[in-house]
Amino acid sequence: APKMSSSPAPPSARSWSISEDSLKRYVLFASESCIQELLSASDSNRVGNGNDGWKVLSLEDGVEISKRRSGSFHTFRSRWLLKSVSPQQFITVANAIDAAKQWDPDLVEARYIKDLEDNLSIIRLRFGESSKPLFRNREFIVYERRETMDDGTLVVAVASLPKEIAAGLHPKQNNAIRGLLLQSGWVVDKLEDDSCMVTYVVQLDPAGWLPKCFVNRLNTKLVMIIENLRKQAQACPSSVHA
After folding, report:
1. Number of CB atoms found within 10 A of residue 93's CB
2. Helix (H) or strand (E) holding 21
3. Which end of the chain is more exposed for a tag (fewer CB within 10 A), N or C?
């Protein structure tokens, strides 16, 4: 008879406790591909050749919303030209916590669990009972990595940690469902006149938790998010004028 003792624990019970060093190595490795995805999304289709899989959903008032589908994943991209907002001003409010507040005012808790380096953090976002369907009682344990590329382009990469690592860092609350945010984030390109071009990419795994009506509403939501962040950014004193 097979030995029962060697059977693996049920997936929900699994959690990996990893050292800070390993965590840092993992996040640096995982975020590398996220950064490349973000850069290629911000770069592609500038000339509107339409052969790179992005389908423009709307284009008005200088805001372009596009969508790309690969398998069951939906990736949304929004691009804005922000006049008289410097990249530094925008990047101060372009973080996972500020964006989460724009997604849903019923954000119950948003906090940095751990700073691995100056530009590398682990964040916990938790949404409450009255949140919209996508976020109701969900919590997300994400990393956030900020990089400045050689050409001065600023990138903020955000994605969920794998379930087992997240469980080891922060045990799941009983009534919360752990959502997964796939590779998402911002790319901010500096333009002349202290303006910038912002690309925001959000990639969701709809497996069982993305209602169709939400996908259709997401593009209006993206416009609102960037609009709110733009207002916050404009309210931030610019280092240039300090």
Report:
1. 21
2. helix 20-43
3. N
Distance of alpha carbon 90 from alpha carbon 235, whole angstroms: 10
Q: Which residues of the chain have pLDDT under 70?
A: 1-16, 44-51, 134, 204-220, 237-242
74: which 2 tokens?
Answer: 């939906």
Query: Under 8 Å CB-to-CB from 95, ≥6 apart: which residues?
Result: 144, 156
Can you say how many angstroms the Cα of residue 72 is from the centroid of all Cα atoms in its chain? 18
Do 104 and 143 touch, CB atoms closer than 8 A?
no
Residue listed under structure tokens 């190595």: 25
If one counts every other C-beta atom within 10 angstroms of the C-beta of residue 206, the result is 14
Query: What distance in Å separates the CA atoms of residue 123 and residue 113, rounded to the nearest whole number?
Result: 5
For residue 44, CA distances in Å to 57, 72, 85, 161, 183 come to 15, 21, 23, 27, 17
What SS3 state is found at 8? coil
Q: What is the pTM of this model?
A: 0.80
In the chain, the amino acid numbered 146 is: R
Q: Is the CB of residue 115 less than 8 Å from the CB of residue 24? A: no
Find the helix or strand (DSSP H, E) in which 16 lies: none
How wide is the angle at C-alpha 39 spanned by C-alphas 160 and 163, nearest 5°? Answer: 10
pLDDT tens-digit readout, 108-117: 888 888 899 9
User: Could you tell me the two tokens for 26?
Assistant: 């993992």
d(CA 227, CA 31): 26
- Lookup: tokens for 24: 């840092």
Task: Please tell me the distance from the alpha carbon of residue 61 to that of residue 226, in angstroms, as a whole number.
Answer: 13
